[in-house]
């Protein structure tokens, strides 16, 4: 997995490519833990993500919940492949879509 982070003011975009699984999830977790309080908008760009395992999904959902707890913070995910998004349980998709966490393109 490769993560390319780009910062524009208080917005951080993480372009994640390759596989997000049990072996690589700690790398993303480390990157997320290093984010400062000045970042109020986090965008996951999954255009080049080839595979996401349950460990990867668990990390993304945990990041989503943590981000919601931050004051005036926004988390967006976009360019997810249809099969990745459709692999989520209905209840999770409804939760994410209800809270507008995914800009699904």
The overall average pLDDT, rounded, is: 76
User: What is the strand tally?
Assistant: 6
Largest sheet: 6 strands, mixed
Question: Which class do the helix and strand fractions yield?
Answer: alpha/beta
Shape: globular
Features:
globular, six-stranded mixed sheet, alpha/beta, 6 strands, disordered C terminus, 105 residues
Characterization of the model:
The chain is an alpha/beta fold and 105 residues long. Helices cover 37% and strands 31% of the residues. It has helices at 25-33, 54-69, 82-86, 90-98; strands at residues 2-8, 11-20, 41-45, 49-52, 74-78, 102-103. Strands 1, 2, 3, 4, 5 and 6 form a 6-stranded mixed sheet that branches.
Per-chain topology:
Layout: E1 2-8, E2 11-20, H1 25-33, E3 41-45, E4 49-52, H2 54-69, E5 74-78, H3 82-86, H4 90-98, E6 102-103
Parallel strand pairs: 2-3, 2-4, 3-5, 5-6
Antiparallel strand pairs: 1-2
């Amino acid at each position: 997995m490769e993560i390319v982070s780009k910062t524009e003011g208080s917005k951080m975009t993480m372009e994640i490519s390759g596989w997000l699984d049990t072996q690589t999830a700690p790398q993303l977790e480390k990157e997320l833990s290093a984010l400062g309080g000045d970042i109020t908008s986090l965008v996951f760009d999954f255009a080049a993500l080839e595979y996401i395992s349950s460990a990867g999904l668990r990390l993304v959902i945990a990041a989503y919940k943590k981000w919601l707890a931050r004051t005036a913070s926004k988390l967006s995910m976009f360019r997810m492949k249809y099969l990745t998004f459709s692999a989520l349980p209905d209840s999770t998709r409804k939760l994410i879509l209800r809270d507008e966490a995914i800009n699904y393109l």
